[in-house]
Design brief:
The protein is α+β, with helices and mostly antiparallel strands. It has 3 helices and 8 strands; from the N terminus they run ββααβββαβββ. The two termini are 26 Å apart.
Length: 174
Amino acid sequence: EAKHTFPWLDLSEHHHYYQHDGGFRAAECELICNWYSQQHLYLLQEMEKVDMGGHSLLDESVVFFGSEISDPPTHNKTNMPFLLAGNGGGLRTGRWVRYANLPHNNLLVSILKLFGDTRTTFGAQEFCTGPLTSLTDSASPSTSVSVGRTSPLSAASSAVVKLRSTATGASLTD
């Protein structure tokens, strides 16, 4: 748990204070989450600018953005959003994908697989049932996967897959 404060947002307490310790404070949490999202967008936009000989650094990367909880007051992990950006490892982008009732460790092992790692689990095996399908162009969707299109918000947003976690783990969504 990070104990740093956010004086540039006029917030004198740490993030967990606004999530839980001081009672849930939605406005303050929104300020913090928006700030983190702006930093993430800045990173993606800067990576898009780096020319790697006809393609960008973002094209060769996968950038993960998420949280360890979806509902701060309860520490719930149901419908927890994750975002992947970049095209590294053949990641198919510009869409949302939802996987029903899977642990988010499946997403983490899937990211390893994008770069050729041979592991089939990540973390404790009871919290990882294996890599997700449909993250790359070569993967075909399974029957438990919902897929939709995202609308571009910036140059970097075209390289986004959004993931949402369920009670037992991760699903990908908008």
